[in-house]
Specification:
- It is a single chain.
- The chain is mostly helical.
- The chain folds into 2 domains: 145 residues, no CATH class; 273 residues, no CATH class.
- 49% of the residues lie in helices and 9% in strands.
- It contains 19 helices and 11 strands.
- It has a 3-stranded mixed β-sheet. Strands 2-9 form a two-stranded antiparallel ribbon. It has a two-stranded antiparallel ribbon with strand order 3-4.
- Strand 5 and strand 6 form a beta hairpin.
- Helix 8 packs parallel to helix 10 and helix 8 packs antiparallel against helix 15.
- The protein is globular.
- The structure holds iron/sulfur cluster (SF4).
Length: 430
């Protein structure tokens, strides 16, 4: 089965692997049956002296050397399979990272993961230059793993009560894309416009709409957005204590993924680990004193120091503005925020999750700055935060659970998302 690939149209987004080995050290790589067969034929078990892959609660994964990352990672940062047998011999997930491939109609949409440092930096060759290798990988899936490309349904859930067709979805995401990419406005204005439109949609009676009327409504709402924050009406209230508590719970869910070594602990250690996790979760909810340690890094900071961190000054905001623009385009215009890319969630629920993720990025960025003893955000803090959030978004079972949907439902009331985003703003208003 050969399907053309759709490359994300994200202005100024580039990527080339810079060999930092972050993915080889930190990610858990799932293997297909073909990968396992190939690794067996390549006789790695005897060459390595340890099992090349192991059972994991979520499938068969590449083994790690304790505390060091993938068993194939060489001391010079190269992949041993690649070094000895070439790129084609590597497991499929390694060949494709940091891209993803999902069937969409009669094509395959290429997604982009922002947990790779050179994606966040946009450092390397423009995305369209990767078309040939992505098409070849996609063709290979179509041939070897056709089940991964099962046809997607014609009707797409916009909300629990409304389904739309692909043409309507294209029109809707196209309108959002135009708004997000309009860099004549500040990033804060574009985010606040997005929040306004999404909150009106949250409160609209979906029974009254069909697809074309919904697309018209979104067109109209975006066209009617004020020209700038100054025209935006009433000041935004500070978030309530319970809204802040929910944000910290979401941050905990994003930052506390299970690392490879933790997934392999024996019963006793694993019970102690889980008890520690429960204690950390309680401390996050309380929100005072030292921020509990999270799996994503070893930053040490207090909640009080985090709260004192100020956003990036407008005159230094160009890189952060551009980074957030690319991220929002990848999530919304390239459909990374809903449907098959995001727990099968309806479009509106995915948009709400993306808005909460923006506030969580602001929270993690402040934690980085506080951990480094600074009281002002830097673009690198934002990049680091975005890598944490994007590693878990759509992949952590907890973020796809019913409790996450309930959290979002609560935060869509009383302007919770808007208040949290403003409180954790990444860039100051001019
Ligand atoms: S994280 Fe990105 S840049 Fe680093 S090795 Fe992996 S793909 Fe290459």
């Amino acid at each position: 089965m050969k399907l053309p690939v759709i490359i994300p149209e994200i202005r100024s987004q580039a990527w080339s692997c810079h060999g930092c080995t972050k993915c080889c050290r930190e990610l858990i790589v799932h293997l297909t049956r073909d990968d396992q067969k190939r690794i067996d034929q390549q006789q790695w078990r005897s060459k390595l002296g340890v099992a090349p892959y192991v059972k994991h609660p979520t499938g068969i994964v590449l083994n790690h050397n304790p505390g060091q990352g993938c068993v194939f990672l060489l001391p010079d940062g190269k992949c041993r399979i690649h070094a000895e047998l070439g790129m084609d011999a590597k497991p499929f997930a390694c060949k494709i990272y940091p891209f993803t491939l999902e069937r969409e109609g009669d094509a395959v949409r290429v997604g982009l993961r922002f947990d790779c440092p050179t994606v966040t930096k946009s450092d390397g060759n423009p995305l369209p230059s990767h078309r040939r290798e992505l098409q070849a990988l996609s063709d290979k899936i179509g041939k070897d793993l056709p089940a991964l490309y099962r046809p997607d349904p014609e009707a797409i859930a916009f909300s629990a009560a409304l389904s739309i067709d692909r043409g309507t979805l294209d029109r809707i995401v196209g309108r959002f894309d135009k708004w997000i990419g309009d860099n004549r406005r500040s990033i804060n204005d574009r985010i606040s416009g997005l929040v306004s439109v999404v909150s009106i949609l949250n409160n609209a009676d979906a029974q009254k709409f069909d697809g074309p009327r919904l697309a018209e409504l979104i067109d109209m709402l975006v066209n009617d957005l004020p020209a700038g924050a100054a025209d935006g009406g009433a000041p935004i209230l500070e978030p309530s204590r319970s809204q802040l508590k929910l944000l910290r719970q979401a941050a905990f869910a994003y930052g506390s993924f299970i690392r490879f070594d933790e997934s392999r602990m024996g019963l006793w250690k694993s019970m102690r680990f889980r008890l520690a996790q429960l204690r950390h979760a309680r401390n996050m909810t309380a929100g005072s004193g030292r921020i509990p340690s999270l799996a994503c890094d070893d930053i040490v900071a207090t909640f009080e120091n985090l709260r004192a961190v100020r956003p990036i000054a407008p005159e230094n905001s160009r890189d952060a503005d551009e980074l957030l623009t690319r991220y929002l385009q990848a999530r919304i215009a390239n459909r990374g925020a809903f449907g098959r890319h995001y727990y099968g969630w309806p479009v509106l629920a995915g948009l709400n999750a993306t808005l909460l993720a923006l506030a969580v990025i602001g929270w993690f960025a402040r934690r980085s700055a506080a951990g480094a003893g600074r009281d002002r955000l830097s673009t690198q803090d934002v990049r680091d935060a975005l890598m944490i959030v994007d590693r878990s978004a759509g992949r952590s079972p907890e973020l796809g659970a019913r409790s996450s949907r309930l959290r979002l439902r609560y935060l869509t009331q009383e302007n919770g998302l808007q208040r949290l985003i403003a409180h954790h703003a990444i860039v100051s208003d001019a």
